[in-house]
Design a protein that fits this description.
Elements: H1 2-23, E1 34-35, H2 37-47, H3 49-69, E2 75-84, E3 103-116, H4 120-186, H5 192-227, E4 236-237, H6 247-250, H7 262-283, E5 288-299, E6 308-318, H8 327-393, H9 399-433, H10 442-445
Parallel strand pairs: 1-4
Antiparallel strand pairs: 2-3, 3-5, 5-6
């Protein structure tokens, strides 16, 4: 009777501690430094060098656009020349230049305006516009990419945190079971091998605990460096998995009309840019015409000859005849070939985008189904553990069955955590590929 009483008392303690452990799942240490997903994303957006480089690239493209626009205006040049010779540049001339000339100077200014250059100026400005628009799209993509990576790293950290809690709960369970086996062994009611079985399972659990802890610290360091926050070992990613809505109820089926997709827009820009490159190559085969004015003054300092000023207007016509069969013709041919290559790449890119979006949708749907199955499996595993515990306490099954049931319940809880975090990652990937992420404007990130 004493054995039954002692045995039941230990059982109740184990069950109570196990229940407390399961209830604590998802509750974070309130004394640790906590950071939410929203806080992480805000910090990452401010810290990201990729975004900073994207904004700098926009500035660079704007400067290039201004450079190309300057070609619409006249090109103004000024020059000056001075000469001095100790022995005179021009010797004395009796009756005309008695002292000779030992210096000369010349100053001139010229303004030239290109009237026609085969469309190269217009096409250069159009290409500059394309470059600026492309830079803006890529900068927006950099923002989306930072949001995506930040959330992936955040959920990886959450996953490892929750796995630690599962391990700690099962460690408590095995510690109590080990204490029970020690008491029963001392009372001579069980063989020593049963105690050793529990010790082996507990050692494996502790080994896994150490491995997960090291993985968490590494993931935390990676997260802190990427987001740009100070690393502290007790930092906790604050999140929960409640009220996950099925994707069919939250989102419409993926729309394969890519007109608003940023990657599709880049493909379209590449087509336009390639066409402009071909037009610029053709412009080198066409005549160019320019007009201008020039003013010049020349004379000598301290000379009997007065300085002279002259001005004139001019026009120039250039015809690149040799380009019609030489290097210019070959360049046009190369650009036309490249234009065809770009068009083919565009078609492949569109197909890949459609497949990627569709795959992300099915991945998201499957991820939600995994949560449903994992929840059901967890409930079954916990019920199985309870039944095996009752059978063990009543002498209807052995310790091995109980330990197997405990490992199964632990595995089911781990799988549920993995299913939750996998769903979160699949959701952010789907939003990223369909350009549905809520991101701040580029102007707000410049501040």
């Amino acid at each position: 009777m004493m054995y039954i009483k002692t045995h039941n008392t230990v059982i109740k303690k184990v069950q109570l501690l196990s229940l407390i452990g399961w209830l604590l799942f998802g509750i974070h240490n309130t004394f640790a430094q906590q950071i939410t997903l929203e806080e992480s994303q805000k910090a990452a957006l401010k810290h990201s060098n990729a975004i900073k480089n994207g904004l700098l690239t926009i500035e660079k493209s704007e400067a290039f656009k201004r450079e190309m626009a300057a070609n619409y205006f006249p090109n103004v040049e000024a020059s000056a020349l001075g000469l001095y010779a100790p022995n005179d540049l021009i010797g004395p001339i009796e009756g005309f230049l008695p002292n000779g000339i030992d210096n000369l100077y010349s100053a001139s200014a010229t303004a030239t305006e290109v009237i026609y250059a085969g469309g190269s100026i217009r096409n250069s400005n159009a290409l500059a516009d394309i470059q600026l628009e492309t830079s803006q799209i890529r900068a927006e993509q950099a923002v989306d990419s930072v949001l995506l990576v930040t959330e992936n790293k955040f959920w990886q950290l959450v996953q490892l945190q929750e796995q630690q809690k599962v391990i700690e709960t099962n460690e408590t369970y095995l510690d109590e079971l080990l204490k029970q086996q020690q008491d029963l062994l001392e009372a001579g009611l069980i063989a020593k091998n049963q105690l050793l079985q529990v010790k082996v399972n507990r050692s494996e659990l502790l080994l896994n605990k150490s491995r997960v802890e090291h993985m968490r610290k590494l993931a935390l360091l990676d997260f802190a460096l990427y987001v740009g926050v100070a690393y502290t070992p007790d930092m906790v990613a604050n999140a929960d998995f409640e009220n996950i809505t099925p994707p069919e109820l939250k989102y419409e089926s993926p729309d394969l009309d890519l007109s608003g997709n940023s990657n599709y827009r880049l493909l379209e820009k590449s087509i336009t840019a390639s066409s402009l490159q071909t037009k610029m190559a053709k412009a080198d085969l066409l005549p160019s015409f320019a007009v201008g004015v020039s003013a010049q003054e020349f004379g000598a300092i301290d000379s009997a000859i007065d300085s002279q000023f002259t001005g004139f207007a001019f026009g120039s016509l250039s015809i690149p005849i040799s380009n019609w069969w030489g290097s210019g013709k070959q360049r046009v041919k190369q650009e036309k070939i490249q234009e065809e290559i770009t068009k083919n790449n565009r078609e492949d890119g569109i197909d890949q985008l459609k497949v990627a979006i569709t795959q992300s949708w099915y991945d998201l749907v499957n991820a939600h189904e995994q949560i449903t199955y994992a929840l059901e499996n967890k409930q079954l595993a916990e019920e199985n553990l309870k039944v095996n515990r009752d059978n063990y306490d009543n002498g209807l099954s052995g310790l091995t069955d109980l330990l197997d049931a405990q490992a199964m319940a632990q595995n089911a809880q781990s799988n549920l955590i993995n299913a939750y975090t996998n769903f979160e990652n699949k959701e952010i990937t789907y939003l990223y590929r369909t350009d549905q992420l809520t991101a701040p404007s580029l102007d707000s990130l410049k501040e």
